[in-house]
TrEMBL record:
It holds the Pfam family UDG. This is G/U mismatch-specific DNA glycosylase. The keyword Nucleotide-binding does not apply. One of its GO terms (molecular function) is uracil DNA N-glycosylase activity. Keywords: DNA damage, DNA repair, Hydrolase. InterPro entries: MUG/TDG (IPR015637), Uracil-DNA_glycosylase-like (IPR005122), Uracil-DNA_glycosylase-like_sf (IPR036895). It comes from Peribacillus saganii. Transmembrane segments: none annotated. Residues 5-153 form the Uracil-DNA glycosylase-like domain. GO terms for biological process: base-excision repair, AP site formation. It comes from the Bacteria.
Amino acid sequence: MNPIPDHIKTNLDILFIGFNPSIRSGTSGSHYANPNNRFWKILHEAGLTTRKFRPEENHELLELGYGLTNIVSRPTKAAEEITKEEYQEGRLELRRKIQTYKPKIACYVGKGVYQQFSKKNNIKWGRQDVTVVPGTIDFVAPSSSGLVRMKMKEVVGIYHELTDLLVSLK
């Protein structure tokens, strides 16, 4: 199964970074395509989008100043299937993407994604005190997976902090 394309360009407001595509995303070619994934609902409820987008509209986020990528490009059923070598290669590639495209904010969709990228263990939700790539703010948000046990209201609240941060930067 082929990786799905990044939706990325220079000077984005936010670059959303996931673990890797799901099998559904790999099949459809769209980010966050699993029907159990709440990414699109979260963005809308947190005020980042004016409506709930569909996965097949993922490229339209670029017009809003948002991009989509993953730390590993290979689709899998679960993040546990990702190898150490894939993470190592993904860390280097993600660093290059952030340095090249210079988003204002890198939003890691899950603490585990940020942990793999930053190699830090003690991670809080929200804006991080120290960034990995200078010039880009690191923001850690909960995974949008339907497997996450946090209440939706709490998840949306953290993403709303991202909305507030973005407004404060403009």
